[in-house]
User: Which sequence fits this backbone?
């Protein structure tokens, strides 16, 4: 199965990159852009075809490496590879 | 004192650390490749600065899971002193040996300059040669050096006197203006619960020889030699 993983900064964690992106959007004339937060997107394929098993594997990957849960949240969607 | 320096792909201060260690101990440290599962008996383990694994994903994240780190974590938990400088500090947080995380600098810029630090404790393995509240000059060279931890963790670190160094001005005042990267509480370095593991963003090994323009870092390596011999 294939997982589409999104990693985002937790609310309250400062995001200077998001702020810089917001500033650039404003400079381009998108004056209404606000609260820009940036994150990461990762795709991973796993051999498991059973969603529960794939989910368990992806959870471990997120917790052990892909996200730093002190500052980041993760979410994912599973689909047939 | 037998020291080991761990070398990751992308480490670039491993030799600086080795030179500073040899100057303090009289013997060159063992240079241990990250892929080695075996680590020589060591009185001190140093995780050097650099950009391990290109700092992909997050600074220090991949290095924290490299084969040799399993052994480093085991030794650290058993009491072996472990010093993480710059990227080494990032690796220590990612490996769970120190709390918190080093985030992108508030300015978004890579900052390479000498900074003033206040020595918060003079009674540790690493600092016995310094005076309490002594102001020292160490260089910083990083883009991800903004120390972050949640309020509860910061309170614990402060309460347990685990802040090793704070960014300050030349008179030792800890001010927002003296904070180069947005670190919480101007934190430049912290200890673990037992004071045996130290992580810091500034580079003591880069000002440890008069030819480099300063020797404030030398005392850290001499402190270690004395502490470990004691």
Assistant:
């Amino acid at each position: 199965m294939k997982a589409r993983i999104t990693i985002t900064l937790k609310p309250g964690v400062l995001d200077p990159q998001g702020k810089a992106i917001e500033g650039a959007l404003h400079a381009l004339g998108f004056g209404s852009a606000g609260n820009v937060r940036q994150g990461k997107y990762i795709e991973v394929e796993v051999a498991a075809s059973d969603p529960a098993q794939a989910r368990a594997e992806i959870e471990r990957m997120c917790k052990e490496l892909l996200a730093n849960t002190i500052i980041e949240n993760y979410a994912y969607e599973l689909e047939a590879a | 004192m037998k020291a080991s320096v761990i070398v990751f792909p992308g480490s670039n201060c491993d030799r600086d650390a080795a030179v500073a260690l040899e100057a303090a101990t009289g013997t060159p440290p063992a240079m241990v490749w990250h892929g080695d599962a075996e680590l020589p008996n060591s009185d001190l383990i140093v995780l050097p600065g650099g950009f391990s694994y290109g700092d992909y994903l997050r600074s220090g994240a991949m290095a924290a899971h490299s084969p040799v780190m399993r052994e480093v974590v085991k030794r650290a938990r058993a009491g072996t002193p472990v010093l993480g400088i710059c990227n080494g500090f990032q690796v220590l947080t990612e490996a769970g040996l120190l709390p918190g995380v080093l985030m992108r600098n508030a300015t978004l810029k890579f900052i390479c300059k000498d900074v003033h630090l206040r020595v918060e404790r003079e009674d540790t393995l690493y600092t016995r040669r310094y005076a309490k509240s002594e102001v020292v000059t160490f260089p910083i060279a990083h883009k991800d050096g903004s120390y972050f931890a949640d309020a509860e963790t910061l309170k614990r670190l402060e309460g347990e006197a685990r802040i090793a160094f704070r960014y300050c001005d030349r008179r030792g005042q800890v001010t927002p203006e003296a904070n180069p990267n947005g670190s919480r509480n101007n934190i430049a370095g912290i200890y673990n619960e037992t004071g045996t593991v130290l992580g810091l963003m500034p580079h003591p090994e880069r000002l440890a020889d008069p030819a480099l323009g300063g020797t404030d870092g030398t005392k850290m390596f001499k402190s270690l030699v004395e502490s470990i011999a004691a």
Summary: The longest helix of chain A spans residues 51-66. The mean pLDDT of chain A is 96.
